[in-house]
Design a protein that fits this description.
Blueprint (H helix, E strand, L loop, with lengths): L1 E5 L5 E4 L6 E9 L11 E10 L11 E9 L3 E5 L2 E5 L5 E5 L5 E4 L4 E9 L3 E8 L3 E5 L2 E7 L4 E5 L2 E5 L4 E6 L3 E7 L2 E8 L2
Antiparallel strand pairs: 1-16, 2-3, 3-4, 4-10, 5-8, 5-10, 6-7, 6-9, 11-18, 12-17, 13-16, 13-18, 14-15, 14-17
Length: about 190
């Protein structure tokens, strides 16, 4: 097990692919040997972003996306013949980067986290950690993003305190268990497959 504490000053900020806003890149991975890291070389990215006005999502062919509202409420994603309901915080929705999606804000701006991965390269999952409890973690990369205040967790019996706004990156060579002790966090999980 390898752990790295990522602090807000380690995060980078960049424009959305369509230029409609700015996202905070918490952690990402690109194809090995890539000299220029861009959307084409991306394997996966875990990021947060505010959505302050209704508008279109970026077109991202070949990318699978998971999204969860972590601040505010009332977000709905509209696609042709489909609706993704994120009106309540901590609801995860899954969609593809090819979908033409427009956001609807029913109660003002929201803050979301996104976990995206190149299709066929990784399996991804996003869940909210709100109540103490245990869960199994497969081999792979896991990101515990502490939302408000400090979060206490145990991984493989080792205790960690993740300060608010920080992210604990846990890289596991084999399956393990995570015990969520206290706080409020989002867990993003990535298992490379390709």
């Amino acid at each position: 097990m390898k752990t790295t504490l990522l602090k807000p000053e380690d995060y980078t900020r960049a424009p959305w692919k369509n230029g409609g806003g700015i996202f905070t890149d918490i952690a990402d991975a690109h194809r090995p040997g890539t000299e220029v890291k861009n959307w084409d070389s991306l394997l996966w990215r875990f990021a947060s972003t505010p959505i302050v006005a209704p508008g279109p999502f970026s077109h991202m062919p070949g990318i699978d996306r998971l999204q969860m509202v972590i601040g505010g409420r009332g977000l709905v994603l509209k696609a042709e013949g489909q609706e993704f309901d994120e009106r309540e915080p901590f609801t995860t929705v899954r969609f593809t980067g090819e979908m033409e999606i427009v956001t609807e804000l029913e109660a003002g701006p929201v803050e979301v986290v996104n976990l995206m991965a190149r299709r066929g390269a990784a399996e991804i999952a996003v869940v909210a950690l709100k109540e103490p409890g245990e869960r199994s973690l497969p081999a792979g990369t896991h990101l515990v993003y502490a939302l408000s205040g400090d979060c206490g967790i145990r991984v493989s019996g080792e205790e960690f305190l993740v300060p608010g706004g920080c992210t604990l990156k846990v890289e596991l060579a084999e399956a393990s268990r995570l015990a969520f002790v206290s706080g409020l966090a989002v867990l993003g999980s990535i298992r490379l497959t390709g």
